[in-house]
Design goal:
It holds the Pfam family FA_desaturase. The chain has 15 helices and two strands. By secondary structure, the protein is mainly α. It has one domain.
Amino acid sequence: MTGLQDRLTPEQVEEFGRELDALRQRIVDDLGQEDVDYIHDIIKKQRGLEVAGRALLFAGFFPPAWLAGVGALSLAKILDNMEIGHNVMHGQYDWTRDPALSSQRFEWDTVAPAENWRHSHNYIHHTYTNIVDKDRDVGYGILRMDTAQKWHPYYLGNPVYATLLAIFFQWGVMLHDLEVENVVKGERSWADNVPVLRRIVRKASRQIGKDYVLFPLLTGPLAPLTFLGNATANLTRNLWAFAIIFCGHFPADVESFTEEETAEESRGQWYLRQILGSANITGGPLFHILSGNLSHQIEHHLFPDIPARRYPQIAGEVREICEKYGLPYHTGPLRKQLWSVAKKIVKLALPTAPSPTTVEPDRQLRAA
């Protein structure tokens, strides 16, 4: 935990908030055709990759064709999940009034129903970012990712659970909105989950039917290879999405908060929590696109409804604002962030794990 209120004076917090509000408004005022052309171009490329991948699997008896098909299909699923689905469903393109880019109508190529995801992610996660016992993305109801989570022998399996979650990530996201841990604690009934379950069954049935029945059958005698190719593409997307998301939320320097210290927070305090509770990942333009620009998780948490293609453009200004107020701006290459997350998962499996969110004394002095 960190002393959120001790970071800045009330006056600094308000000025900090005004600066970020001004930055956001400048981007909103500048949105236009270039943003529309960008997302349409990404969608066109994603569809082209999917068609190419499906077509190449029809020649799956030839190993290079099978590998190329799986590669193309994997990229298509990653783009659909990260740069298109995640960002469109955040409402980043609702201002275009294009039905195909409507956050309320869009459905992505994953077993998680869009309606369920919008509730658990857009509302719960982005409202209560890194507030322990409120933000259910802290551990996904499965992992211990903060020392504020009371240790139990169950958490000795932390590394195993994390590995399984990475492999089956789309299924973990699908089940997330059931809030099973709250059902176990008696804070939610199974009756509350009936509409959630109905959406899950409908969506998962369609996805299973498409990837593991329809397309394999269409390739006739190559059905087993097509089945394996689709499974490999889904696995690739799952591992990639898990890595990007966990590296943006759980490296060692990222901080967590209590309900008490975030009660009745101002806009400036909300911005402050987003910065302290997020981390970026460095990389090139293609890396950022494939991450859905969630490699700029700090900017995304600050402005979740701004088109993600804008995050690299404003990252430098956000960092300068952080430096101006003596605030950390957590960033690093994928290998560093992933290793930091892995160490945290292992350490927090044990009851004596050191707190990864402890504020160093010199930082506390600077903030005083």
